[in-house]
Amino acid sequence: MRKKIVAGNWKMNLTLAQGEQLINDIVNAGLKLEDNQAVVIAPPFPYLQKAKSLTQHTEGFFIAAQNCAAEKSGAYTGEVSAEMLKSIGVDYVILGHSERREYFAESNATLAKKTDLVLANGMKPIFCCGEPLAIREAGTQNDYVAKQLEESLYHLPAEEFSKVVIAYEPIWAIGTGLTASAQQAQDMHAYIRSQIAAKYGREVAMHLTILYGGSAKPSNAQELFACEDVDGGLIGGASLVAADFTAIVKSF
To answer: How many CB atoms lie within 10 A of CB 230?
Structure first.
């Protein structure tokens, strides 16, 4: 049975006090999670330890970092290594988010290095992929996403790849006024799963968790999560509002 995940990516938002209140509101919302369901919270780096302490006794809750360095250690001022994240109990690390690719020029090769470091330190990557508007309009989105997967993940043996979570971001539908339909989400998720099956076999593909990262909210989460190949969501803005985030979790 595939793991179903709702992950909240806070990005660069909230003070420590606001973040603590948000987590407490979510933890105390009375969410009932099944064994194959999980809530992942990804606060900014300074709040990771606090977030871990607030959720560590709540069944089904996990903590993610929003990024990590591509090097193991050394003279990289301002960077945070995978080993550091492991040492404070981080469970997941988001890699390759569209904002990291666009604003910080993260390449597929760089993300391959980060993926290796996250896995080597016993954490699970949430690997983001997805196409911008120009690629979607050209109709080449499948090839574009397949290349992201191939160049960043396909060097992994099946045992290691099976620990990865994929998050599909239709970048063209985020903050553009355009909307990705549930069918468009399902189509890409199914395509990703088919590509994984071709590379690693059907069993690995059928156990792979693929999240939707296209501005899911309470009003569309249930429709999205009902899609056969959509296993949850990587939530942005709605993760900053306890009522919205918990409503999305309840959409399971």
So the answer is: 23
- Catalytic residue check, 102: no
- CB-based contacts of 193-199 (< 8 A; 24+ apart in sequence): 193/229, 195/146, 195/149, 196/149, 196/161, 199/154
| Cβ–Cβ under 8 Å, residues 68 and 91 | no
Tokens read off for 187: 């189509």
Domains of the chain in start order, with CATH, are 4-250 (3.20.20.70)
Residues 6+ apart with CB under 8 A from 108: 147, 148, 151, 152
pLDDT at 18: 98
Is 139 marked as a binding-site residue? Answer: no
Lowest mean pLDDT among 76-80, 173-177, 233-237: 173-177
Q: Is 107 annotated as a binding residue?
A: no
Find out whether 236 is annotated in a ligand binding site: yes
169 has catalytic annotation: yes
